[in-house]
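Handout, section B. The chain below has 330 residues.
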Amino acid sequence: MLSLVTGGTGFVGAAVVRLLISEGHAVRALARRGSDLRNLCDLDIELTYGDLQDKDSLRQALKGCRRLYHVAAHYSLWEPDPGVFYRVNVDGTRILLEAALEEGMERVVYTSSVGALGYRDDGGPADEETRVSLDQMVGHYKRSKFLGEEVARQAAVRGLPVVIVNPSTPVGPRDIKPTPTGRIIVDFLNRRMPAYIDTGLNLIDVDDVARGLLLAADRGRVGERYILGHRNLTLGEIFALLGQITKIPPPMLRLPYHVILPLAYANQWLSDRITRRPPRIPLEGVKMAKRRMFFNASKSVRELGLPQSPIEQALEKAVRWFTDHGYVQK
């Protein structure tokens, strides 16, 4: 069975491609011209070039495929042109899913994010049913993923057999950019993390996320969303685990939110007006950190059989990969 994977050059997409290959599937990966192909260069796949804004290239990429794994997204905490989030994550998703409907895909998995979900008032882990609105989305990335989910749900109503998955915070190898979470690990390894803010994340092994996408294709209910997550940890607990793995002392200074926020605003101003480079302290990241991003993935475990591999092992794999691939200063 031939499957198309968008975003296969990236962190999660590469894990999906590798898992599909290991299970005997034929894979076609969609990439843009000029993409970093390091995550795909040693794989036996068909590579096709296209763009989420170009419907003809998408229809050509979908020809002969029975399943579509839409993993591609624009993910960052700052951009000089915020419109890129909506062009890729909303308009691009709409164009791709329209093409998938026209090409008669048997199954589509749309990769959203827990960033599109809500928070519980009592601070407990949120789930797929936690109420949320667009006004509650912090920043352009979250807003664009919220709107992208709406596009996917509308496509399901029109007859596209699409299942939505919401990965939490994946960690592991081949985070080539790296992602904002990967950047935290890299900064820790390079001893550039003297202090941290009191927040929390839900971590999951990136290979479990990939497995979750395949399980969603096989077992997920059309139009439903599934959180692909595992273990809720404070940032301090994450650094403690990294300290145990690496023997690097974790940062001890925990800064309150009201101290970090003005620094983030100053960094944002410098990036927007002067440097035109990503801020060292991203404002959107700090605003997100005001709440602990804890989630409950029990629906995915129950309905899909989502694996829950030890987070310690996922962090170990990430540390080893970053170290072996030149991200850590000697």
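Note. Residues 2-176+203-230+292-308 form a domain with the Rossmann fold fold (CATH 3.40.50.720). Compare this with the example in section A.
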